[in-house]
Structure formats: structure tokens, C-alpha cells
Amino acid sequence: MTMSDIEIARQAPIKPIQQVADTLGIPDAAINPYGKHKAKVDLDYLASLEDRPDGKLILVSAITPTPAGEGKTTTTVGLTDGLNRIGKQATACLREPSLGPCFGMKGGAAGGGYAQVIPMEDINLHFTGDFHAIGAAHNLLSALLDNHIHWDNKLDLDVRRLSWKRVVDMNDRALRDITCSLGGPGNGFPRQDGFDITVASEVMAIFCLAKDLEDLQQRLARIVIGYNRNKEPITADAILADGPMAVLLKDALAPNLVQTLEHNPAFIHGGPFANIAHGCNSVIATRAALKLSDYVVTEAGFGADLGAEKFFNIKCRSANLKPDAAVVVATVRALKMHGGVKLADLGTEDDGAVYRGCSNLIRHIENIKQFGVPVIVAINRFEADTLAEMAAVRDALKDLDVKVVVSNHWAEGGAGAENLAHDVVELIESTESQFQPLYSTELKLWDKAKTIATSLYGAEDIIADQKVRDKFAQLQAEGYGDLPVCIAKTQYSFSTDPALKGAPSGHVLPIREVRLSAGAGFVVIVCGNIMTMPGLPREPAANRIRINTAGDVEGLF
């Protein structure tokens, strides 16, 4: 009988976190343990590494996700273990899971099979409290904003033009749009408000893009919380919020160190979603790993049209990173779905559907090539995959000059990813990365969004009503035109229609809303029906999660 992910994780031996730190040469004095098996690494120690050369940076991305599964985190962990098995010192850099999907759609996000990070239960639940700190800092700003309005409103903030919502790390559709401050004068001025999920918070984005504590507070200070009656932007520092917010975040900003099942180091820190935010772990964690390791394997959320695009255009631009290679993960099962096969029929061999579904994979490969980054394809193998189906992938990609590697890390751990590790190293050593962002900062905000839509999504154009177009013009006039854009759209299609699989072309990208994230340093472009506060499904994962009579968590993936 096949064990579940949580059973595999629970039975695995686990080393004290100091021993994992030793493999990176981190002294005991720089390790702040959170229990026996996880720790934060001291920021002052990391700052002392600045003069060290960087290791090689490998991005793991994927095809457009389907219910059949792709396995970016699993591949990131497996590749890290595989690299260490072939004698390369490698560290994984991952995002922290959000409680929203853990109790909603997915049930966990620490890898799977024999390619996991541990302690799995801790990572998927409260971990080291980073998300709680981020939520507290965000909501402190909300409280200070309403308090300022209550006590004389000296900045003349227009309650009709406040742009700062509240957040909670849970899928709760009832909080999307609310009325607050009811109950009389003592409770403030009644107004419309709403909640986003914590991973969509600008504070989360700032947390993940800040290079140190000083940069963190400067970014917090620049947050635009709304406009006064003269329609002038008001920032967080105007109500003296940046200082106390930084205080709440100072301990959380140190990156978290854990281990894989094979006891290799992994930094897990920060966790913005890629469908509604920029989808990458923290710059601090990535830079720390690059100074401490020869190879760093990191992931970006969802398909390459979202996660990889934002990793390249936002994170790498902001942190001056140069990725050396990219791995695009696909599964035969998911390619079948992109080729028109229904979820219930995936068990039947269909190499023709696999071939058709490769249109999605091909576009992702071509998209990454536009950034000048060498790319390789990893087929995350499932037991039911047939030789004919895997051959169909190679046949579909034969004209692209891209290597296709079958990786069996889910079933075999690092041993199953050795071939992938060898090929990734060979790619890095033989092909110099020519990385550059897709667009220049000088391009207008509207044109940046259009460039992404037409160059990466296969769209013919972008559209928006006059109110949205006016917002573009307003931000341009206020001096924010040099910022990159962060497109929030469905992860399930290149278009905004989640039912459109494969590689749709000729569609238009409807822009519903534009939000300024001045502290993070980007402009959010909300498209189609995407929600920055998701809802729970009809049967949420939470329904299956419980504590058994032995005191162990069950149902968490």
C-alpha cells in the first residue's frame, strides 16, 4: 500500500537543525532555533557574507496547472537532492504555504512522495509565525489609518478613496466586501472596506522583496494608503506607521532553515501567490542561499506565464539577480488534459492527447527563452505513464533544441533526479545565460501589460473600461510609470478563461482593476474574474484534516 505524503514525512529520520546548518558552514551563534528541526538564520551574519561569490541560480517553473498535478515544489526538492547526490552543494529556496490553500483546495505544500521538506506538518501550519507577523503588521496599518480618521483626520483623508484593505490568512469570501465602523461615533466613521488573503498583501510583497531591515522600513513608508480630498496620495509614513510595522516584522525577516528528507538544506521564507501577487520566496532567503551554496534551486508559483514571468520581471529586476537556468516541469497526465482528456479518463493511454497538449508546454518554453535563460524540460513521472506517452513529448519538442528529462524523484527521491541534476549542470556549464527582463522600465504601464499579454499569453490585445484607463493615466502622471507590473489572473489558462486549455491565441485580456503597490515597487493589474480573497470549495481540504487518537495530524495531504 502506497504511503501518503504525511506518512512518508512522519516516518523519515530528521536531523537537529544545527547539523543542517553545519553543511552550509553556518556557525551555531547565527542559528536561532524554533524547536529542534527549524531555525532562523541571523541577518547580521548573512550581511557579513556580502563579498562571497554567488552560486548558480536555477528556477523551477511549470506548464499551466491542471487538477492532474505538475509538481514544481516536488521537482525543486528532488533536483536539490539530486544535485547533492552527484557531488554538488545545493540548497532549495521555497515559499511558505498559506493556510488558505492548506485548508481549502490543496491540503499542503511541502513537496510530495520522497521529495519533501520537513517537518512537513510545521511547515504547512504555523511554521515560525512569519505569516502571522505579516498579517499583524498589515492590520496595524489598517488600525492606524482608521484611528487617524477618527481623531480629527488632520491629513484630510477621503474615506471614499482609501485603498488599504485588511487581510487574513484564510479563504473567506464573506470578508471580500464589508461595511465597518458601525455602532455610533465611538466606533469611527462608517465606510466600505474589505479583506484580501495575507499572501496578496502588499506587506507580503515588501517582505519578500526587501534586501534588509532598512530597506523593509523604507518600503513600508512608501505604501500608499489612500488619497486626500485634493486627490493627492497619502503614504504610511504620514501616519507614522512604518516604524511599528517594521518592529512587528524584524524577527520574521530572518529566513527559515529546514531540511529535505535527505537532510539537504532548504530555506523556506515568504509566500506570495503567483496568480494574485508575484509568486516568489524572499530575496533575503535567495541571496543567503546563493552566498552559502554552489547551486540554488528555487521555484515560482503556477505556470511560467505567471510565476516565472514575475520572477524575471519583478524579483530579478529588483534584487539584481541573474538566473543561470530554468526547468519547466510537466506531467504526462497534465499534458493529456491540455490535449482534451477529462480528469476521469487520465488512466487510459493516449499519446495523441499528450502530443496535442504539448502546445501548452511549447509556449512556456518559448516564453522563457524570450528572457534569454537556458531551459530544460523535466517530466515529473507518474507510475501510470507509458513509454509511448513520454515519447510523444520528445516528438512534440524535437524542433525546439530543448532537452527533455524524465525524473522519478517522487518515488525515488534524489536518486530519481540524478539524471536531471547532471543535465541541469551540463546546461549551465555549456550555455551562458543572457538574462534580461521582457520590457524596460521606461515603457508606459499600459504598454507593459500589453507586452506581457501579447508576448507571453498569446493575446491579441488588452481591454479596459474608461475608469480603469483613467487609473493607468493617473499612476503614470503621479510618477509610478517606471514600475514593473504584476498581473493577477487565473492560473488555469493563458487567457482569463480557466476552461481554455492548451495554448489559446487571439484572445483579449480584460483588465478589471489597477492597484498601486508603491512600497513593493510594482503595479497590480487585476484581470478577468480573479479574486484577491479566494473562497473555499464545496468540499474544502479542512473537512479531512483532524487529530487522531495518537495525537498525529491526519488529512494534511
How would you describe this structure to a colleague?
There is one protein chain. The chain is an alpha/beta fold and 557 residues long. The chain has 2 domains: 5-128 and 252-430, Rossmann fold; 136-168 and 190-249, 2-Layer Sandwich (Domain 2, N(10)-formyltetrahydrofolate synthetase), CATH 3.30.1510.10. It is built from 19 helices and 25 strands. Strands 1, 2, 3, 4, 5, 6, 14, 15, 16, 17, 18 and 19 form a 12-stranded mixed beta sheet that branches. It is globular, with a radius of gyration of 23 Å. The two termini are 16 Å apart. The mean pLDDT is 95.
Indicate the topology.
Blueprint: H1 5-11, H2 17-23, E1 31-33, E2 39-41, H3 43-47, E3 56-62, H4 72-85, E4 90-94, H5 99-102, E5 111-112, E6 115-118, H6 120-124, H7 130-150, E7 157-162, E8 166-168, E9 178-180, E10 191-193, E11 195-197, H8 202-209, H9 213-221, E12 224-228, E13 233-235, H10 242-249, E14 256-260, E15 265-268, H11 283-292, E16 295-299, H12 304-319, E17 325-330, H13 332-338, H14 351-369, E18 375-380, H15 387-396, E19 404-407, H16 409-412, H17 418-430, H18 445-455, E20 461-463, H19 466-480, E21 485-488, E22 508-517, E23 522-527, E24 546-547, E25 553-554
Parallel strand pairs: 3-16, 3-17, 4-15, 4-16, 8-11, 17-18, 18-19, 20-22, 21-23
Antiparallel strand pairs: 1-2, 2-14, 5-6, 6-14, 7-12, 9-10, 12-13, 14-15, 22-23, 24-25
